[in-house]
Amino acid sequence: MSDKWKASSSTQDIIRDLVANHHPHLVDIIDDIVVIFKDKASKKGDRPILGTTAKAPAILSVLGERDYKFVLTIGNDCWMKLTDPQKEALLDHLLCFIGGQEDEKTGEMKYFMQTPDIFYFSEEEMRHGNWRSDVEYPSDKKKTDEDQENSNTEII
Q1: DSSP 104
Q2: What number of CA atoms fall less than 13 Å from residue 69's CA on the CB side?
Q3: Which pLDDT score is estimated for 135?
Q4: Ramachandran sector of residue 83 (left: φ over 0; alpha: ψ -120 to 50; beta: rest)
Q5: 3-class SS at 54?
Q6: 58, 9, 7, 66: which is closest to 32 by C-alpha?
Q7: Residue 104 φ/ψ region, left for φ over 0, alpha for ψ in the -120 to 50 degree band, beta for the rest
Q8: What is the pLDDT of residue 138?
Q9: Does residue 148 have a pLDDT over 50?
Q10: Please, what CATH class does the domain formed by 4-136 belong to?
């Protein structure tokens, strides 16, 4: 068996269901998202990384059968230990990293990698709960006309 391989059609079917039900912004690129398995999950510290999402490298369009936009990579050793609901949850999690927004001028969809809106350690959450939900971030405030005129880019 190869170190890496393309997922079966049944895994792609789960992706299709998730996009149809929870990620409608991805419907136009559903066939441009490929799931790749590798023998062993990478680790960060002592924890396995179940999967990752990345923009597809341009070389894939030269070597592959289509112009892939995103690659979901999953460690097969961990995947095989997951229940079916956990597998679906992992794929859903990985799809959440793909953002999409319509360009107001052209009407064209632009796709990008986004970061999770919740990021915490389990022990932190046990001690404090989701304390960040009560924090007002600069992007949450309504901008005044003067703020909008003086702001080129908002960085969070």
Answers
A1: T
A2: 18
A3: 65
A4: beta
A5: strand
A6: 66
A7: alpha
A8: 63
A9: no
A10: alpha beta
| This prediction's pTM | 0.79
Selection from 83, 84, 51, 48 nearest residue 70 by Cα = 51
Cα 121 from Cα 99, distance rounded (Å): 24
Strands (E), the chain: 4-6, 33-38, 43-44, 47-48, 51-55, 70-75, 98-102, 109-113
The tens digit of pLDDT for each residue in 4-31 reads 999 999 999 999 999 999 999 999 999 9
Domain segments of the chain: what residues?
Answer: 4-136
Task: Specify the 3-state DSSP secondary structure of 134.
Answer: helix
Tokens standing for residue 26: 């991805």
Q: Which residues contact 109 (CB under 8 A, 6 or more apart)?
A: 25, 28, 29, 100, 101, 102, 103
pLDDT digits (tens, 9 = 90+) for 36-88: 999 999 999 999 999 999 999 888 777 767 889 999 999 999 999 999 999 99
